[in-house]
Specification:
This is AEC family transporter. With about 300 residues, this protein is mainly alpha-helical. The chain is built from 13 helices and no strands.
Length: about 300
């Protein structure tokens, strides 16, 4: 019972914050324009600052985390073709949205928030490094999928590499690693200012995600949406944890690996589906459904993991 209480203390506040954002939006207290501006602020400024500060001030070095990063990368690479096989019975135009919804998690907000709540700044630093590795794989797979299944756009290595190089989250992580490697010393006033900006990131981002959710879509959820959500919330974490076990990860690293893998489908999957000619309705259903169910699956999974590891 104690382990489940710990798990619920990690996932519960995050989910309640999402619900508060959802409720405030329905009451008209969070306008669409505010959510757009706040989301842009988080993506361009406060989240990169959060990632930089936590990696730069972390006690562990990148070399210490290679087993965690390897487990995440291998697990993700295995999950992708399995999701593709699961999508084979679907209509051709639905497959890209299904596959991306089945493996692409909301690492940048919900995954980081869970890791920070469970393990503090050290867990957040580990999660940030994991996010950098997995996000690159996500982008490569997502663009390739939509280009393959869509008649509207073709795959472009140049566009993909440009998108990765211009991603402010990846830039912040790389700069932090370089600064840490060369032994850069930053004035305390800059670090304190960074902490102020970083502290607003996760609450503001969670409110924005909650405000953007449309649970009315759940009434139109299909078998495909349930299958993709189930794969994302249960199969993907199981695959990544298997690699973590093989590589002998310690308890905290296994916990971070699980929480990042168990995060619900990223909202960007809906944006990409709409922009690149995929089934945006299916993508939206997967996002809403996986977000709703993730509080249950992640809580149970974290409780079991804490019990056995």
């Amino acid at each position: 019972m104690e382990t489940f209480a710990f798990a619920l203390s990690v996932t519960g506040p995050i989910f309640l914050t999402l619900l508060i954002g959802y409720g405030l939006a329905r009451l008209g207290l969070l306008s669409e324009s505010f959510v757009d501006d706040a989301s842009r602020l988080v993506f361009l400024i406060t989240l990169p600052v959060l990632l930089f500060i936590n990696i730069f001030t972390a006690e562990s070095a990148l070399a210490d985390e290679w087993p965690l990063l390897l487990a995440a990368a291998l697990g993700t690479l295995v999950s992708m073709p399995l999701a593709w096989l699961l999508a084979k019975p679907l209509d051709y135009t639905d497959r890209s949205a299904f596959i991306q919804g089945a493996f692409r998690g909301n690492l940048g907000i919900i995954g980081l928030a869970w890791a920070a709540k469970a393990y503090g700044s050290s867990g957040l630093a580990q999660a940030a490094l994991l996010m950098a590795v997995v996000t690159m794989l996500y982008n490569l797979a997502a663009v390739s999928l939509f280009a393959f299944y869509s008649q509207r756009q073709r795959f472009s290595w140049q566009r993909l590499l440009r998108d990765i190089a211009q991603n402010p989250l990846i830039i912040a992580i790389v700069v932090a690693l370089l600064a840490k490697q060369i032994g850069l010393v930053l004035p305390q006033i800059l670090l304190q200012t960074g902490d102020y900006l970083a502290s607003i990131t996760l609450p503001l981002a969670l409110l924005c995600i909650g405000a953007s959710l449309d649970f009315s879509l759940l009434r139109r959820s299909s078998v495909a949406a349930f299958a993709a959500s189930g794969f994302k919330l249960m199969i993907v974490p199981g695959i990544l944890l298997a690699f973590g076990w093989v590589l002998g990860l310690p308890a905290q690293s296994m916990g971070v690996l699980f929480l990042m893998a168990a995060a619900p489908t990223a909202t960007v999957s809906f944006i990409m589906a709409r922009a690149m000619g995929g089934n945006s309705q299916l993508a939206a259903n997967i996002v809403a459904l996986s977000t709703l169910l993730s509080v249950v699956t992640a809580s149970i999974g974290l409780a079991l993991l804490k019990f056995v590891v």
